[in-house]
Amino acid sequence: MLTRERMRADIAALIHEDPEEIGGEDNLIDLGLDSMRAMTLLVRWNETGLGLDFSEFAERLTLDAWWAIVRRHLAGR
Amino acid sequence: MNAPLAVPPHDPRMPQPLTEAQAGLWYAQRLDAANPIFNTGQYLDLRGPLDLVAFADAVNGMVAEADALALRIDDAGGAPVQWLDEARRPWLAVIDLTNEPDAEQAALADMARDMAAPLDPARHALAAERLYVLGPRRHLWYQRAHHLVVDAFGTDLLVRRVANLYAAALGQGMPGPSLTRPSVVLAEDAAYRADPRREKDAAFWRETMQGAPEVVGLAPGLAMTGHRALRHAEPLDDAFADALRAAAATHNLPWPDILAALVAAYVRRHAGTPEVSLGVAFMGRLGSPAARVPCTLMNVLPLRLAPDEAAPLGAVLADAAKALLRGRRHGRYRGEQLRRDLGLLGAGRRLHGPLVNLLPFDRLPEFAGLEASQHVLGTGPVDDITLSFRGGPDAAGLRLEIEANPGLYDAADVAAHAARLRHFIHAALGAPRLADVPTATPDEARWALQDLNATTHHVPDTTLAALIAARMQAHPEAPALEFAGTVLSYAALDARSGALAAALRARGVGPGSIVAVALERSVELVVALLAVIRAGGAYLPLDLEHPEARIARILDNAKPVLALSARPLPGQVPVLAPQDWPLAGEAPTQGPAPGDAAYVLYTSGSTGEPKGVVVEHRAIVNRLEWMRQYYRFGTADRILQKTPATFDVSVWEFFLPFLAGATLVVAPPGVHKDPVALAALLRDGCITTAHFVPSMLAAFLAEPASAGLRLARVFCSGEELTAELRDRFHARIEAGLHNLYGPTEAAVDVSYWPASATDRSQPVPIGHPVWNTQLYVLDEAMRPVPPGVTGHLFLGGVQLAREYLGRPDLTERAFIPNPFRPGERMYRTGDVARLRPDGAVVFLGRSDHQVKIRGQRIELGEVEAALASYKALRQARVIAREDKAGDRRLVAYVVPAEGFDAAALRAHAAARLPDAMLPAAFVTLAALPVNSSGKLDRAALPAPDYVTVEGRAPATEAERRIAALYGQVLHIEGVGAKDDFFALGGHSLLAVELMLRVREDFGWDPGLGALFEHPTVERLAALLEEKPVSDSGLGPVVRLQQGDEALPPLFVVHPAGGISWCYGGLARALAPRRTVYGIQAPALAAGVETPPSLDALAADYVERIRAVRPRGVVHLLGWSVGGIIAHAMAVRLAQRVGVLAMLDSYPSEVWRSQEEPEENAPFRALLAIAGYDPDNLPDGLELTREAVVAYLRAGDSPLGRLPEAALDGVVRVVRGNNRLVRQHEQGYFPGRIIHFHAAAQHAGSAISPDLWRPYAGDVEVIDIAAQHAELTGPEATVQIAPPLAARLAACDKKDTA
């Protein structure tokens, strides 16, 4: 089960930051995330069976925005 | 509500401006409205049970959301605007093809037709959605949209949305959020235009691109999109993906960055430049609501990389990743805008080379219960080549896709790049450094090394001496040698060379010894060369025109046992002069062996010492036997020998005839520099085969006498044969043209190319290897390079020279072990070359400081060494400059020391260097300019001022004219009377040009020899003034103006006096386009009869025109009587006539009605030719011969210097012409006469141009405000030349008929 905390940890690992450094509304692009890395995260999270779509994720790159999408998918299952 | 940004309220049905991304595409489509390349399209092949209703609903659901697909764009009101037009929404069309015999083919053909139809954004729906039903379990879903409304990312959004909606319709999930409307993109676009970030982005890119070199791609040519693109797609195998994943893990980089870095390295290998600029496609949507808007946002920005081949691979990859990261941060800035910022506007001015497109997004979405595959049909314009990699973020399902501009690449090129790029990247992924990775695939390497060099051919292992002896005995009576009227049979040549060989043997000459031969071209020279070889020795040719110091150095190095020379030579070498040669004697029975040296030729050496190249019999026998058999030389051939014996081309000229039983025709000394004499020799000597250095061929073709020559073969070598020269050759001369290449170090030539009239190669290749010979184009690591990649040219095979005489160090450096053929050697040419896809080798230039001046190979180091031996000099550098296209000259830059004297330096150099190696100019500098790395900054060296300081200004009129001609030919100003043509940088080819101009200006040509004897302005002017006019200026055809060879020339026919110099002003007014020839009366020469009729005269002139211009359109013009003759010529030339123009000429009945002319008519005619109005002469001028000649002389007319015989000729011709005209009956010319009417003369007269109407299809009259007699004067010429030039140009094109 994907959680907000696991998402935060995954993001942090990929951009070589501590999870605490990533705020919910921080722009992940400013923190060094690019489309390739965003895609990598998405693939990893989709392994749990969610049908996450890159274009939705790409609209807004913040932890909170992403969590909102994931929560909606989790709810729809 | 998921929309994260508030959308500015606006009605999408109201016109909006285009985004920055759209504007560029819109203008491009507007400029090329018929171009369908802007259509993007793809289809999904859906296999399995499809719920047609659910699928149609899904597509239509997507269409309902994707407003961009319903856009309309129009500029009717000025600037282009776009708005939503509901009528254009592309609802799905379902096309049932189940009854078609080949349903898939029918569907594909329908898609192809749709893709090929250009779209007008104002008039046509820009998108289409179709479902082709092929059968119950097979459907093709086709989507097409103009690139203005959607890009690749947008198309992907559409597909995902449909997959989503289809799954939802089947109850297999949620429909998910709808697509976002394009209005957010417009809002963002507007916001960015006003954002200070945009200025920062602009500054970043300007800085990034500062000092970027000119963009080089994978193929030469203009990178401008065509109407279609070539497409290639292939899956990359697991091994490739594994290697990529491993590298990504090792270097901790995403795979797209790694591929970008390696694509850059690949392109750089092909471009041959230190750095490359790729185009990188940025998605332009990350972190923006546009991420869910199907529209066009894709942006291409440059990625400048200079991958260091020697650095660890990780460092190269990391550099590229960093550059990409920086670029992404500024990836919003439009590439089109950056082009404008950098002033890179217009075709051919590029921001980047090949485009790399990295698509690390998920593969196709799942279509419930279906197997789907994607087939891309078009992605928009392709300027050059696009290299795309698609695959999952984990590099699963990786595919390589290539799109290429068919104007630059063909399908085979694309396939070759696909295979090579795949191989290169795969190899690089596992290599420690890029330098360890070959560019060629193993298949390409095998092809280049082996297939192209499969030249094994049996050639007997023998010697020149044995082959020639056999021929001499085979047909002793046949002519072997001709020279200036002397003919030697094979028997006679056998006897004389055998006798001398015996004498040489008696003096100790045998295998291993060298005999110097220093003789002018003559029978003796040929006898000497044969005798040395028959005695078993190697000949060493010496040019006595070379400085004595150089000859002394060569003799010192070669240590010949004997010299065959008419003059003593420096040093101790004993000389056997021709008068002491025996006429009887038996050639030694024991000749040389195949491994003995046949000749030693000295070439320029970079260290300052000439190098003696030793070539063995086996090597030269291979070269000559190849040539004899390949080109089918036989006993009927007559081969011209004109190349100096010190130049290796002479080797085949001398010996090939004797291997073929043909005749060797030896040109008299000096003829090889004189095009007129050469043309005569080729024609009168019935030569079948001749050789030209290309620059000499160019000068030869410029000479009128070369037109219409016919030979079996002409060989070119020694420098680059240009495509332009090849074509010019075939337009003038009927002969096979063959381009040969080879250094002295490999027995004359090692490659050949038929540069035939049908050859369209550009550049002309040096071609393929001769028998038993290998050509290798290798990179720095001695690996073969694939076609299109520049490399170093190496040679292998039986023709390689043995050594540089007495220089084992140089020999070892140049002749290295052949890595591809163990036990054999390989020669490093120092030339740079590349292979064409067909395997032909193209020569590209030198990799070092060797240059070619007039076909002669020159090491700049040798010239510099000669200068450096002059004491009062601190530094000297020599470069070859080409300040005028096609005219390369050596220029020395010297930093003087105390006691420096420019004249002394020049003399010092002249004493040590042959002519061709002597710098044309010496420039003194306080210091040599150097660049930041301390190397000579060649760009900072000033162009030389060729003018010497001393001397006086030209004084007489002739001096002024000659000085002006020197200036024109040499492109300098302020030529003085004492200035020497050759000292000012003139050389023999420019001398030819000068003498052509002298002939035009002075009306006669004293010959090239005269210039060599009288090279200063003062002396040449004196010569031209003193000497009586020779026949040449009064010859039947004189060239008055040299223009563009490709255009039909204008022939101007003499008026009554028989001389056509009067047209000089008109000819100059038609410069520089038009070549103008004057036709003059042959009867000007004493003893030539006036022909019986004007028709016979015209027939004679037509023949003379044919000799100059055998084919194609010619233009005719004549003044007065000349017009009548021109008309009679036009009747004969018929279809070939472009323009027939007359300067106030009238049909013969007008003449018959006039009174017989007075006795003094010839003198009136003479004055008229000189441009005076004979009806308006100064008071007191008597119309007598003496008075008129004196008057002309005073006015400095060249006519005043006509010799007595010519004046008699004029008198005779005027009388003869009067008779001919009065008897003449005009024929009918079906074309048009352009009549320049002397309106001032004939106002109100019955004499009218209309009198020509019965004799021509049409008459166009152009009134000129002048008297009849003034029509060739300056005032009339300015009125005549422009309309004449326009009419000539309009009729040039008839040439195709």
UniProtKB/TrEMBL annotation, chain A:
* Boundaries of every Carrier domain copy: 1-74
Q: Which domain of life is it from?
A: Bacteria
User: Which Pfam families did the record assign?
Assistant: PP-binding
The record's listing under SUPFAM superfamilies reads:
ACP-like (SSF47336)
Question: What InterPro entries does UniProt report for this protein, alphabetically?
Answer: ACP-like_sf, PP-bd_ACP
Alphabetized Gene3D superfamilies for the sequence: ACP-like
Protein's name in the database? Phosphopantetheine-binding protein
UniProt organism field: Teichococcus aerophilus
From TrEMBL, chain B:
Q: For the Carrier domain, which residue ranges apply?
A: 953-1028
Which SUPFAM superfamilies does the entry mention?
Acetyl-CoA synthetase-like (SSF56801), ACP-like (SSF47336), alpha/beta-Hydrolases (SSF53474), CoA-dependent acyltransferases (SSF52777)
- InterPro entries reported in the protein's UniProt record: AA_adenyl_dom, AB_hydrolase_fold, ACP-like_sf, AMP-bd_C, AMP-bd_C_sf, AMP-binding_CS, AMP-dep_synth/lig_dom, CAT-like_dom_sf
Q: Which UniProt keywords apply?
A: Phosphopantetheine, Phosphoprotein
The question of whether Phosphoprotein is a record keyword is answered with yes
Q: Provide the protein name.
A: Amino acid adenylation domain-containing protein
The protein's organism comes out as Teichococcus aerophilus
Taxonomy, top ranks, is: Bacteria, Pseudomonadati, Pseudomonadota, Alphaproteobacteria, Acetobacterales
